[in-house]
Design brief:
single chain, alpha/beta, OB fold (Dihydrolipoamide Acetyltransferase, E2P), Rossmann fold, 6-stranded parallel beta sheet, 24 helices, binds adenosine-5'-diphosphate, binds magnesium ion
Length: 686
């Protein structure tokens, strides 16, 4: 339950004076439903004004405050020409105030002849005259509320102005409860931060980085604390300790020796599995680093211990590929592997469900269908999620609730995540890294080519196919329109068919699962040679004979995404190439980014760069789903402050007695304020 002291902040904006439906609508469009949303709607820029006399004015274009005596009203000749009101300042210099449209009669009343007014607005020149068009403020001389020298400019929606929004914010600020401080005192002192109340007030009254940082920090702190609490609660729960006896692993006949990194990571995982405290581990390994082998070893340990394991893939195609790989590696071993996706229906599905319930299925591979409510396992001891970046936090939590004991959880990702983001998103996990590529893989040679050279490129593809090889052709990413993306791919496929005939196949995101799989299977079997695709091939597909990849309009892709795509080639012993086709005209930055792709294969470096360029939400693929980890902290603030927030959360839990200690009550407020209630809920074992 949310503490009552936060109620004024969670009150609807309609409870503020003067907020009717007319203003609630634009507020709603801005996502401002509650008072706290309004208070956390920060200005993006500021209008600065100087109080001046006309004689001091060096230049027009600035925002000024001026005191004028009104001397005349002059309506224009026609109904559409503006009303011009003239005033003089203390030195006797003239200024015109201009009003268009229907504002004229209102302006006459505000600015009666013979009276003195304080006026603010942007100074312009109109012929020989100086003028202000539609002043921002008109106040009687000596008004108790002077025109502000600095005014916030807010992100707006039609139907509301910055000054109106600011007025509502001021009302909200009056309701601020005094909250106890949750930040560690020495950190407050070191950063010279103000209290939460003061900081909120400050951000709406002046451009102040320190106040914005403090408030962003709060959000990061709540995030880190919630993660720690989840972790702590898992640590208290019991899972099934697994120690294999080697009876299955020793039977594995692999065509290669494990890399040192694979052996090390398998060791780390086995160490976790042997504990009754459930594993919560993230395995980062670049595309092709051999994560599947690691997963296989872990799954076999579960089976050796008489338990079940599950491997969750983000797509149907990948699930089937995993199944095929596992079955190949496990040929001759007494291990029963099954698959469950949206495609298994009717009797097929029933039999899988039965096998899981009675324990006759040892390993289940599938899409998220495998963790639906209807699926019961006899003894699920290990869950592995492949390609984590496609799954949200909520799915992770759901998973950890499945089963009687909490299963061990291994999350595998091929998107190397910069440290700051890893902390923010996976802070509660232990991390392993497969930082060594299997031998015998020749690095992919990357080249950048202008789209103007498409004809030569197609000749190159012809030579490549004539040598018996296969290739991927990735079509441009089209922002926000799957339809035009498809159109582009269809067009390209048609064009390539003119030259290469039946060797060309097309796969795209609009295809249904079975249809897509069929195309992929034919390509994997080598019956088609050139696969034209939208980005659906981004994740996973393994076709060793495909040693050429072309990415059209590569400058529109994110770097991490390009890196993923590039990982689709270079899987065989043959030397592979990736050709990044760029638009004829691109910016310097875009050029530099493509050059980075050409020059490095280091996924971590690419990820850091991508984070700088695109931001966290986009990088994690969460922006559309609204599941971005932070609403207040900017990516820059995440990078700068997440480390401190993690350390502070650790102090609170390990030294200051957690949520039940003296600082804990305040920290609890921060959790609720940022709606990290899950963190609090886990404390009750939920
Ligand atoms: P990813 O980490 O991208 O999931 P995979 O597990 O698909 O990588 O492995 C990529 C390829 O490397 C597969 O064809 C796999 O059989 C092979 N592979 C895995 N481990 C080794 C190894 N130790 N030596 C040689 N090849 C390996
Ligand atoms: Mg993989």
């Amino acid at each position: 339950m949310r503490p009552d002291i936060l109620n004024p902040l969670f009150a609807e904006v309609e409870t503020l004076k003067g907020v009717g439906p007319g203003i609630a609508r634009p507020l709603d469009r801005l996502g401002l439903k509650r008072v706290k949303d309004l208070l956390y709607h920060f200005p993006t820029s500021w209008t600065y004004r100087k109080a001046v006399r006309i004689a001091d004015v060096a230049d027009v274009g600035q925002n000024i405050i001026i005191t004028l005596e009104i001397v005349s009203h002059r309506a224009g000749g026609s109904a559409r020409s503006p009303l011009r009101i003239h005033g003089v300042d203390a030195d006797g210099n003239y200024l015109t105030l201009t009003f268009f449209g229907r504002t004229g009669s209102w302006a006459r009343k505000q600015l009666p002849i013979g009276e003195t007014r304080v006026i603010s607005g942007k100074l312009e020149r109109y012929g020989d005259e100086l003028q202000i068009v539609h002043p921002d403020h008109i106040a009687p001389a000596g008004d108790a509320r002077p025109v502000a020298l600095v005014e916030p400019v807010y992100p707006l929606s039609e139907g509301i102005t910055s000054s109106r929004l600011h007025g509502l914010v001021l009302q909200g600020l009056e309701r601020l409860p005094g909250l106890a401080e949750w930040i560690e005192p020495s950190l407050m002192a070191e950063r010279k931060w103000q209290s939460w109340n003061q900081s909120l007030s400050t951000v709406h009254h002046k451009d102040d980085q320190s106040a914005r940082d403090r408030l962003a920090y709060d959000e990061l702190f709540a995030n880190q604390l919630a993660m720690r609490l989840v972790r702590a609660s898992l640590d208290r729960r019991r899972g099934p300790p697994i120690s294999g006896d080697d009876r299955l692993v020793s039977l594995l006949k692999l065509p290669f020796a494990l890399t040192g990194a694979q052996r090390r990571v398998i060791g780390e995982i086995e160490g976790d599995l042997a504990q009754s405290r459930p594993m919560l581990r993230l395995l980062q390994g670049d595309v092709g680093s051999g994560k599947t082998m690691v997963a296989l070893h872990a799954l076999l340990r579960a089976v050796e211990a008489g338990k079940q394991g599950a491997l969750l893939a983000p797509t149907e195609i990948l699930a089937r590929q995993h199944l095929a790989n596992l079955q190949a590696s496990l040929a001759g071993l007494p291990v029963n592997v099954a698959i469950l996706t949206g495609r298994e229906k009717g009797r097929m599905r029933e039999s899988v469900l039965m096998g899981l319930a009675d324990g006759s299925i040892d390993i289940l591979v599938g899409t998220h269908a495998i963790f639906q409510e209807a699926v019961t396992y006899k003894a699920l001891a290990l869950a592995i999620i492949d390609e984590q970046h496609r799954f949200g936090v909520s799915q992770r939590l759901m998973l950890s609730r499945k089963g009687q004991g909490v299963p061990h959880l291994l999350v595998m990702t091929a998107t190397p995540i910069p440290r700051s983001l890893a902390l923010a998103c996976y802070g509660e996990m232990d991390v392993s890294a497969l930082d060594e590529m299997p031998p015998g893989r020749t690095p992919v040679e990357t080249r950048v080519m202008s789209e103007e050279r498409l004809p030569q490129l197609i000749d190159g593809v012809a030579r490549h196919l004539a040598n018996g090889r296969q290739a991927f052709w990735v079509c441009p990413l089209v922002e926000e329109s799957e339809r035009s993306e498809l159109a582009a791919a269809e067009q390209r496929a048609a064009m390539l068919k003119l030259r290469f005939g039946d060797q060309v196949a097309l796969v795209h995101g609009r295809m249904k699962g079975p249809e897509k799989d069929a195309v992929m299977e034919v390509f994997a079997a080598g019956k088609t040679r050139l696969l034209v695709a939208t980005t659906v091939i981004e994740v996973g597909v393994d076709v060793p004979n495909a040693s050429l990849m072309i990415v059209e309009a590569a400058d529109r892709f994110g770097l991490a995404q390009l890196h993923q795509l590039r990982g689709r080639v270079g899987r065989g012993s043959e030397k592979s190439s990736c050709i990044l086709v760029r638009s004829a005209q691109i910016s310097e930055t875009a050029r530099a980014r493509l050059a980075l792709m050409r020059d490095t294969n280091d996924g971590f470096r690419i990820a850091e760069e991508d984070l700088k360029l695109r931001g966290a939400g986009e990088m994690l693929g969460t922006r559309q789903s609204g599941d971005s980890p932070f609403r207040i902290a900017t990516d820059e603030q995440v990078r700068a402050l997440i480390g401190a927030a993690a350390a502070d959360a650790r102090l609170l839990i390990d030294r200051d007695g957690g949520l039940d200690g003296p600082r804990g009550a305040a920290a609890r407020l921060a959790l609720y304020l940022f709606e990290r209630d899950a963190g609090v809920a886990t404390l009750r074992g939920g």
